[in-house]
Amino acid sequence: MMFVGSVRPIVAALTALMATTGLTRAQDINDYPTSARVEYAFGCLKANGETRQAIEQCSCSIDVIASLVPYDRYVTAETVLSMSQVRGDLGGPFRTSEQAASALNELRRAQAEAEVRCF
Prior knowledge:
Largest sheet: none
Keywords: Signal
Helix content: over 70%
Radius of gyration: 21 Å
Number of domains: 1
Number of helices: 6
Strand content: under 5%
Signal peptide: 1-26
């Protein structure tokens, strides 16, 4: 009986530690602002039909992307996508830069994983 009494505080401490660790991970994964998530989901809905099922799939998709790509890299990739469409010299570095290609490839890999998991 004495053994059970000494284990309870240890179990309580471990539970608290695990809850704190889980909270930290959730905050790390949830570093995308709501507006960025909504913007992604809105574009996804337009591309996939505006149905209830598409809402579920698109929100799942941005959650997967957020778990794989830090927000600052997501912003970089989105900027590369946008600027690479600009014609002429202004858009050139975004089409030919190794850094731009790396950021874009990271986002595309995350999107492919999201496609597999969510659609």
